[in-house]
Amino acid sequence: MLHGTITFLVRVMSIPNIHIDTRFQRGKQIRRIARCHSEINPPPFPFGMNIRKRRWPDRSVHSVMEGKSLNPTEEYYGEVARLLKWINERFFEGALKLPMITFRTPMKFFGRYIPECWDHNSGALRAEFKLNPVAFKKASFEEKCLELLRLMVLLDQNKQGRSNYHDARFAKAMWLHGVQTQRAGDPEKETGEHVELSVIPGMKFEKELARKNAGMDFSWAIREADPAPSAAQDAGEAETAPRSKSGKRIKYVCPVEGCKAVAWGKDSMNLGCLDHGQPVPLTITE
Question: Is the pTM of this model over 0.85?
Answer without folding.
Answer: no
